[in-house]
């Protein structure tokens, strides 16, 4: 044992041994706990504050210990005051641990209370990225994002992957061809940081039947979810397999974005503490506190103190680790408005963390996406501090598109604004249309099918008496609640899903869809399935086979967007780029919108689009096509496959076109 050094934080290899460094400003004693393997005895080494503390960092170096297979954690003690939660008897995970060892099989209830240890492997050879660093990045304007779950993608038996790799990073690789066929250019992975999927089952409660399938409850911010390794391989295998998955996606031309949760941790609030790390290491630094205890802007009991200098540096270190170690291309920040609050919870105009991310040499080159709201009411859609770098989930786009397509009054002018890239929100300073992430549905809420099949949420299975999940869904069941054998209702639902998909992919801005919408996945009206490790959240490959026509339409629309220059612009539309064929802007009862995008110097051919949300057909007068060209029908969602999308175009159109109720059309001008 030697004194060690204060940097870097975490476990690191020195010439003379393995160094351990832990920040704890308010801790008064620190004990390092070391274990050789999962079955060995625990050795406790008390750190001397005179020799093993530099500033607020406690450190020690252990000589002649194995460079792999070692588990470690800490006991930390300190004052008992209103902002501290020290308990010298609780084993604490190192905040900077690069790997976490705990239970190895997902949702293994025999290991429900297994502790979480940090570990390391300094014997690993450098991963062969095969030149991945030099790959061509997807321009932001060409992103088509597919929000998805690593585990849910191949967990179901119908995936056809070997049983030992189902629900794993390796299993994911086998199904990448599906993503290529669909046409998406980026995946946005639900959280893959280490989390405890059995956290709801620690004590009796109304949710103790649930398993955390989504992962928005982080235990450690540096380690990949170890139970996404194949065949119970553990944390080191998980790290290697994640790198293999990322490399395979990049080879397929698909970028990898991570959904990251820096707004709170797994450790709960005042009433339901779950001490695994930050509470016990230095609660007053890592969390926002007031006279009543934990501030709760996350809705999950606690709020990370993101703009405290120490926590800001911690988050930057975490993000850079994922970029440099795993070649991650970007991040979507859950409840990102929390990151814009000061240490007292007040909103900041220029949050240090947000600015630091924008200015960092590594992170400034990444895709940065904010979910610009939190559970404390800080709604920043269109106003998120951005330094012209951050994109935003456009929640207004979601709500406005849903309302128009289902036939709400007074939505025409708003629809035009959203289809045009939401210039009212993003045409400021040097921001671009692609800084608005357009979406109709996301993981939390209805699927696309449920949006057109349910008027009400059906969340009884969640154990919260139906009180969880949003009540403001702007959905329409097309006449019958839930599943039905009525062919007319099912036909209307299919048409509405196509209408929404066309609107999404033909809008200016960056489109995002969710896993399963390409085959009309249903969660049977449950709009908050975070706790169901079941078919509610799994990709059902047998359903994909049954819905080939639906998939074909979705794929063709995506691929057309990517190849037509009018649909993925870097600049906002000017008056010369678009003609609105409208005289009813101020008529709240008008539910029909038609316009032409002009090719100008971009080429590709003019596009005429019309959306009809009336209950009757509109006999629309078509504008005169450009000189020497004629209108060809590309899309009419009223038709069944394969007539709903005709890539070569269907001619013989007259001067008027009957746009049937609840449908949309797209025409293209060709010679």
Automatic annotation (TrEMBL):
Answer whether the UniProt record assigns the keyword Transit peptide to this protein: yes
Q: Which GO terms describe its molecular function?
A: isoamylase activity
The primary location reported for this protein is plastid
Q: Give the GO cellular component terms, alphabetically.
A: chloroplast
Reactions this protein catalyses: Hydrolysis of (1->6)-alpha-D-glucosidic branch linkages in glycogen, amylopectin and their beta-limit dextrins
Q: Which domain of life is it from?
A: Eukaryota
Gene3D superfamilies this protein is in?
A: Glycosidases, Golgi alpha-mannosidase II, Immunoglobulins
- What EC number(s) does the entry state? 3.2.1.68
**One Pfam family this chain carries?**
ISOA1-3_C
What is one Gene Ontology biological process annotated in the Swiss-Prot or TrEMBL record? carbohydrate metabolic process
Q: Does the keyword Metal-binding apply?
A: no
Q: Could you tell me which residue ranges the Glycosyl hydrolase family 13 catalytic domain spans? A: 147-561
List the keywords (alphabetical). Chloroplast, Hydrolase, Plastid, Transit peptide
Which cellular compartments is it found in? Answer: Plastid, Chloroplast
Looking up SUPFAM superfamilies in the UniProt record yields: (Trans)glycosidases, E set domains, Glycosyl hydrolase domain
Concerning its family, UniProt says:
Belongs to the glycosyl hydrolase 13 family.
The protein's name is isoamylase
Q: Which species is the source of this protein?
A: Selaginella moellendorffii (Spikemoss)
Q: What is the lineage of its organism?
A: Eukaryota, Viridiplantae, Streptophyta, Embryophyta, Tracheophyta
């Amino acid at each position: 044992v030697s004194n060690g050094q204060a940097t870097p934080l975490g476990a690191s290899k020195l010439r003379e041994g393995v160094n351990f460094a832990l920040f704890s400003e308010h801790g008064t004693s620190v004990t390092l706990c070391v274990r050789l393997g999962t079955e060995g005895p625990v050795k406790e080494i008390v750190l001397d504050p005179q020799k093993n503390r530099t500033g607020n960092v406690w450190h020690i170096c252990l000589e002649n210990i194995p460079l792999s297979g070692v588990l470690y954690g800490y006991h930390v003690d300190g004052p008992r005051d209103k902002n501290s939660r020290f308990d010298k008897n609780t084993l604490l995970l190192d905040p900077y641990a690069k790997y976490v060892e705990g239970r190895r099989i997902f949702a293994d209830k025999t290991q429900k209370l297994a502790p979480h240890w940090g570990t390391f492997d300094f014997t690993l050879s450098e991963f062969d990225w095969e030149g991945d660093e030099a790959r061509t990045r997807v321009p932001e304007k060409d992103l088509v994002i597919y929000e998805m779950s690593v585990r849910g993608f191949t967990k179901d038996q119908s995936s056809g992957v070997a049983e030992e790799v189902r629900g794993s990073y390796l299993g994911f690789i086998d199904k990448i061809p599906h993503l290529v066929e669909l046409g998406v250019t980026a995946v946005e992975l639900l959280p893959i940081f280490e989390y405890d999927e059995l956290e709801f089952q620690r004590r009796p409660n109304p949710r103790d039947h649930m398993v955390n399938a989504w992962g928005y409850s982080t235990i450690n911010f540096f380690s990949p979810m170890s139970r996404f390794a194949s065949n119970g391989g553990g944390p080191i295998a998980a790290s290697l397999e994640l790198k293999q998955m990322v490399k395979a996606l990049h080879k397929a031309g698909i970028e990898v974005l991570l959904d990251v949760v820096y707004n709170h941790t797994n450790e709960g609030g005042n009433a339901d503490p779950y001490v695994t790390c930050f509470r016990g290491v230095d609660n007053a630094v890592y969390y926002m506190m007031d006279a009543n205890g934990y501030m709760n802007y996350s809705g999950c009991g606690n709020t990370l103190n993101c703009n405290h200098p120490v926590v800001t540096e911690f988050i930057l270190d975490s993000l850079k680790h994922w970029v440099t170690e795993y070649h991650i291309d970007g991040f979507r920040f859950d409840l990102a408005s929390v990151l814009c609050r000061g240490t007292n919870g007040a909103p900041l105009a220029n949050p240090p963390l947000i600015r630091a991310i924008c200015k960092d040499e590594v992170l400034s080159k990444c895709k940065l996406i904010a979910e610009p709201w939190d559970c404390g009411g800080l709604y920043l859609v269109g106003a998120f501090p951005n330094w012209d770098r951050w994109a935003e989930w456009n929640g207004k786009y979601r709500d406005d598109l849903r309302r128009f397509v289902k036939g709400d009054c007074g939505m025409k002018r708003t629809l035009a604004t959203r289809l045009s890239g939401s210039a009212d929100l993003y045409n400021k300073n040097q921001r671009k249309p692609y800084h608005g992430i357009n979406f109709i549905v996301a993981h939390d809420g209805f699927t696309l099918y449920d949006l057109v099949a349910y008027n009400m949420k059906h969340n009884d299975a969640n154990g919260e008496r139906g009180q969880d999940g949003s009540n403001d869904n702007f959905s329409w069941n097309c006449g019958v609640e839930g599943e039905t054998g009525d062919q007319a209702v099912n036909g209307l639902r299919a048409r509405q899903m196509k209408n929404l998909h066309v609107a999404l992919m033909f809008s200016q801005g960056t489109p995002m869809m969710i896993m399963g919408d390409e085959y009309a996945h249903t969660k049977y009206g449950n709009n908050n399935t975070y706790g169901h490790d079941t078919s509610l959240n799994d990709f059902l490959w047998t359903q994909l086979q049954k819905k080939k026509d639906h998939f074909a339409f979705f794929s063709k629309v995506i691929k057309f967007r990517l190849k037509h220059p009018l649909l993925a612009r870097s600049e906002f539309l000017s008056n010369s780029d678009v003609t609105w064929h409208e005289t009813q802007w101020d008529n709240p009862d008008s539910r029909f919108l038609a316009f032409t995008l002009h090719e100008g110097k971009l080429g590709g051919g003019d596009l005429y689009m019309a959306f009809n949300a009336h209950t009757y057909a509109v006999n629309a007068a078509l504008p005169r096509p450009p000189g020497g060209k004629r209108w060809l029908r590309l899309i009419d969602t009223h038709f069944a496959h394969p007539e709903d999308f005709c890539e070569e175009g269907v001619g013989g159109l007259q001067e008027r076109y009957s746009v049937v109720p609840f449908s949309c059309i797209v025409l293209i001008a060709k010679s």
